[in-house]
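Pilot study result, target chain (295 residues):
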Amino acid sequence: MTMILGMPLPVLTGQLLIGLINGSFYALLSLGLAVIFGLLRVVNFAHGAFYMLGAFTAWMLGQYLGIGFWGALLLAPLIVGLVGAVVERTMLRRLYDLDHLYGLLFTFGLALLLEGLFQHVYGASGKPFSAPDAMKGVVRTDFVTVPIYRGWVVIASLVLCLGTWALIEKTKIGAYLRAATEDATLVQAFGVNVPLLLTLTYAFGCALAGIAGVLAAPVFQVSPTMGSNLIIIIFAVVVVGGMGSILGAIATGYLLGIVEGLTKVFYPEAANIAIFIIMAVVLMLRPAGLFGKEY
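Predicted structure:
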């Protein structure tokens, strides 16, 4: 059997695959956080709750309306985005002129409210959600076995991440969004509806969390606590990449997922804290993050 660094090749590649899958969710979720913070300057602590809401919405669409995975993948993020738009329009908008701490406290309270509501209605135990029939099964090679659905998740996440980066960095609407963060009054003077842009930005960031939730539903159980179990790691990823950096969120999401997977091979005891150790080191050497701007 082929050995690399003293480990059997199938074991090593298997953990790399697990790390890449986890990194796909880290990248997609941290991307939504980076979009919201970079353009609205809001630390969205409710992001994990919107991730959970996406998974539960997909489950409810199937359970009560008989809508399959592909329909849920389209509808659930739209529903989550709509909820995010309502939250921004009715509540979060009132906090923009206040200290950032108020936005953090509000979104933290919103996360607790949503998690508590779903736990009260559906209980703490997880709900099963199956992958589509076309995505079941595995692909086997001499050195790795790849579940088809999990491989598809990695590709889908990468496409969504790169598409979002292109939208923000390469399109006219992305230029308007970036300009609005610098001088909203000037942009509004050119006839751009800045309040609508901010609403759409928050809704889009929440929809990204919703998509991640739908993709995660067949991999993990749909649970009220699935977001709270992940949000601290996602914030660590965003901090390492640089707060508000789109490219940083994507790159560090995948990178830290892979590092976490490799740590489980070579030093399992440190697997749960590896990301936080990296965060501490990065903050000491480069406080703005790997891709963040130094001010």
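One observation from the pilot: Strands lie at 3-4, 7-8, 138-140, 145-147. A full batch analysis is planned for the follow-on phase.
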